[in-house]
Amino acid sequence: MFGRPPGVIASPRVSSSPNRTSHHFVTPHKRWCRQGTVPTAARCVPNSPSPRARCCCCRRGCIIDRRRRRATVRAMTVFSRLAGAALQVSLTALLAAVVPPYYVYKLTTYLLGAVFPEDVAGKVVLITGASAGIGEHLAYEYAKRGAYLALVARREVSLREVGDRALALGSPGVLVSPADVSKAEDCEKFVDDTIRYFGRLDHLVNNASIWQVCKFEEVEDVNHFRTLMDINFWGHVYPTRLAIPHLKKTNGRIVGVTSNSSYIFIGRNTFYNASKAAALNFYDTLRMELGGDIRITEVVPGVVESEITKGKILTKEGEMKVDQDERDAILGPTPVERVGDFARTVVRDVCRGARYVFEPRWYMGVYLLRVCLPEVLAWNSRLLTVHRAGASSTDTLGKWLVELPGVRRAAQPPSLRSPEIKDE
User: Are 208 and 135 in contact (CB under 8 A)?
Assistant: First the structure.
């Protein structure tokens, strides 16, 4: 089976087992062992699992090698433990040195922002998705503070109605620009129109968004959801890219309205969650790149009264429609904040210079779950929003809970049950 080198003589040796005989190669050239050049066939007994079936010199070398390996492993283990302990001590010392000054800085900036908020009177604010919901009410809040408004949305009639109300609330001037934020050429047009009409730009509010409800495996064609990604992500990127040169001139601000889905995962919202997480990370990275030239505020809404929470969804077939049963199957008994209160809080915090606006505030507890107990959050989301295989898509625990007596009235504003919801 093995080739035998010259000078190696095979001699039989009876093993300790009565019915077993092993053969040991005896080598007269022990210098091979000392130099580590003994062929495997000369060192080992054929078909023997025992490392002892070797010549004495080889066994001695193997024992020494094993001892060296064990010593090396012990030394590496001790070193890694010492290195880990040193790293922990260093991080603890760093946190002890950095955290107190950081919180002093945060408290100071918060107090300064509260005492000396930004005055937006006479400034120009461009808002996308302004024909309804959050964008509409943000326009009203800016109008009350005396800002000029450039309003953008696809529905021109609704947009003009919002513009008229904004003028009545105190805005000195309103520009209405019907456009689709998912198209780069439309974005270029309304940014240029704003600069041409007002001569400057101070705040860019990226708000346009649509919602999707279906399980990923139920999607008939993923290309149907390019529209969602184009609006929810590229609808933030295009206006931002075009507005940056103008915002730098005024040391302006970008306000990006994302979603709590940027942080937490909600069942049957696969593409929506992904688009909002992409937008959030886009703004985080952009803030780091721009430094202090342009300030950025990221608005992270929870469940807020809007066309989305009224049931306007993108279906698995890629069609926009109003389906309040599907809405209830996802939102369940989650309290819905009134959009007027939400917009008031957002504009107030934006003028105070906030980097992030989390509203409602109690959602901060959910974000902590995402960091500390992600499995619990995933289990809860699946339990409330995902239907069983073969069951109706609206057959969820969340929908059953919201239909309990008194729950819907307590959790949802009356507008969420209005039949006058546009599905265009």
Answer: yes
Question: Is the previous residue joined to 335 through a cis bond, with omega within 30 degrees of 0?
Answer: no
Cis peptide before 333 (omega within 30 of 0): no
What's the CA gap between 320 and 304, in Å, rounded? 20
What is the Cα–Cα distance from 385 to 265, expressed in whole angstroms? 11
Q: What are phi and psi of 148, to 5 degrees?
A: -75, 145
Terminal CA-to-CA distance of the chain, rounded, Å? Answer: 81
Name the catalytic one among 272, 283, 356, 363.
Answer: 272
Q: What fold, for 123-417?
A: Rossmann fold (3.40.50)
Query: Residue 246 corresponds to which tokens in the numbers above?
Result: 């103008």
- pTM here is 0.78
For the chain, the domains span 9-54, 61-116, 123-417
**pLDDT at residue 419, rounded to an integer:** 59
pLDDT, tens digit, 9 for 90 and up, residues 242-251:
999 999 999 9
Active site residue 272: yes
- Of residues 160 and 418, more confidence is placed in 160
Per the CB < 8 A criterion, the answer to whether 327 and 307 are in contact is no
* Helix segments in 150-225, DSSP class H: 156-169, 184-198
Please tell me the distance from the alpha carbon of residue 408 to that of residue 393, in angstroms, as a whole number. 19
